[in-house]
């Protein structure tokens, strides 16, 4: 991790230009079968201590019970391990960076929306020991042991924020896809509560699966899962197309210097590029472990599938993710912008 006296600016190595990455991912023709061996949780994930205080149970999984809106994904121990592994993968995708906004070397107050296990907030607090870092979530699943400058609060980001306006140097969020029902209001609240000159950054998945070489067919289980996920999310009221709108929503809210980076996130260690090979391996495990989390409530509630129908379908999807002949990926959005120094918002 970078030293505390060095600004974590946007990466210089392999950093994409603003806009979508149209570079075709090169397949590693020498990739051997061992990379596709069955993964074990002990190899890729570590659990952290958590203090979950309450929840509801559905289809054998535990979900949050706080707030007015239901978040479609669980908050049990299985999910927490996956989220920490996903943090490692997404940091690797961003060239080892926790964020790309040029926030400067000495932010004083940082807010992490939807903090999950709190791992991002904890690492940022370590990176900036002089900053107060606050992580909020609808679930109390963060560790009890935290640094003196990091704290966690139970809060629903879609409700009115109780913080003072213009009070944060940096506001961060990731993986809110299929969790937010009113993105325009959320972006507006972020604009209201970040300081003039401060930055807001979003990291969001757009899990519509693609391939550059035609190896992903329309009838492939991976492709079917993606389209089914988008259909279910729409019915659930949390459109999965939201990442495509973030740049426009930020500009409409008043942000300036808005940048949108659309990265390719591979599934499986098929890319020739070493960093993306590792990212793809993590994402293959992430899907293997997380498909049930991402699908059960969404498909049973929105599409009226039975639990058994969901689990049978996911068996096909898992098999396809480990098929080395399929070179699939989806888009990962990094969008950030700055609040103008002169603003009349209150």
Defining traits:
globular, 20% strand, Rossmann fold, 346 residues, two-stranded antiparallel sheet, alpha/beta, eight-stranded mixed beta sheet, 10 strands, 8 helices
Which range best describes the helical content: under 10%, 10-25%, 25-40%, 40-55%, 55-70% or over 70%? 25-40%
CATH class (first level) name: Alpha Beta
Which consecutive residue ranges, at least 5 long each, have pLDDT under 50?
A: 1-17, 34-54, 64-69
CATH level-four homologous superfamily name? Vaccinia Virus protein VP39
Q: Biggest β-sheet: count, sense, barrel?
A: 8 strands, mixed
> What is the count of structural domains?
1
CATH topology assignment: Rossmann fold
Number of distinct helices: 8
Order of strands in the sheet with the most strands? 1-9-10-8-7-4-5-6
In N-to-C order, the SSE pattern is EHEEHEHEEEHEHHEHHE
Beta-strand content: 15-25%
Class of secondary structure makeup: alpha/beta
- Based on Cα principal axes, name the global outline: globular
Please give the radius of gyration in angstroms. 20 Å
Protein name: Methyltransferase domain-containing protein
Region (Disordered): 1-34
GO molecular function: methyltransferase activity
Describe the structure.
Pfam families: Methyltransf_23 (PF13489). It comes from Pseudogymnoascus verrucosus. GO terms for molecular function: methyltransferase activity. This is Methyltransferase domain-containing protein. The protein has 346 residues and is an alpha/beta fold. It has a single domain, classed as Rossmann fold (3-Layer(aba) Sandwich), CATH 3.40.50. Helices cover 32% and strands 20% of the residues. The protein has eight helices and ten strands. It has an eight-stranded mixed beta sheet with strand order 1-9-10-8-7-4-5-6, with helices on both faces. A two-stranded antiparallel sheet has the order 2-3. Helix 2 packs across helix 7, helix 5 crosses helix 7 and helix 7 runs antiparallel to helix 8. The N terminus is likely disordered.
């Amino acid at each position: 991790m970078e030293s505390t006296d060095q600004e974590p600016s946007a990466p210089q190595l392999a950093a994409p230009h603003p806009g979508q990455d149209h570079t075709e991912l090169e397949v590693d023709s020498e990739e051997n079968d061992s990379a596709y061996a069955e993964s074990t949780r002990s190899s890729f994930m570590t659990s952290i201590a958590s203090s979950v205080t309450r929840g509801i149970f559905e289809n054998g999984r535990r979900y949050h019970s706080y707030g007015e809106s239901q978040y479609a994904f669980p908050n049990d121990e299985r999910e927490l391990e996956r989220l920490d592994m996903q943090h490692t993968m997404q940091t690797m995708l961003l060239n080892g960076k926790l964020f790309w906004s040029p926030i400067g070397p000495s932010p004083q107050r940082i807010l992490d929306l939807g903090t999950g296990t709190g791992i991002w907030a904890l690492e940022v607090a370590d990176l900036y020991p002089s900053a107060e870092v606050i992580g909020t979530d609808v679930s109390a699943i963060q560790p009890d042991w935290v640094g003196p400058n990091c704290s966690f609060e139970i809060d629903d980001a879609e409700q009115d924020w109780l913080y003072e306006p213009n009070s944060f140097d940096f506001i961060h969020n990731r993986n809110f896809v299929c969790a937010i029902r009113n993105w325009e209001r959320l972006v507006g609240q972020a604009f209201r509560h970040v300081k003039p000159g401060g930055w807001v950054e979003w990291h969001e998945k757009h899990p519509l699966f693609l391939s550059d070489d035609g190896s992903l067919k329309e009838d492939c289980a991976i492709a079917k899962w993606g389209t089914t996920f988008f259909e279910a999310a729409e019915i659930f009221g949390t459109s999965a197309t939201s990442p495509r709108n973030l740049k426009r929503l930020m500009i409409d809210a008043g942000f300036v210097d808005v940048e949108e980076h659309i990265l390719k996130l591979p599934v499986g260690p098929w890319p020739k590029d070493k960093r993306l090979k590792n990212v793809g391996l993590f994402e293959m495990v992430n899907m293997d472990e997380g498909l049930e989390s991402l699908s059960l409530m969404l498909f049973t509630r929105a599409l009226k599938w039975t639990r058994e129908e969901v689990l049978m379908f996911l068996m096909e999807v898992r098999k396809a993710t480990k098929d080395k002949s399929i070179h699939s990926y989806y888009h990962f959005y990094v969008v950030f912008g700055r609040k103008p120094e002169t603003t009349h918002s209150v």
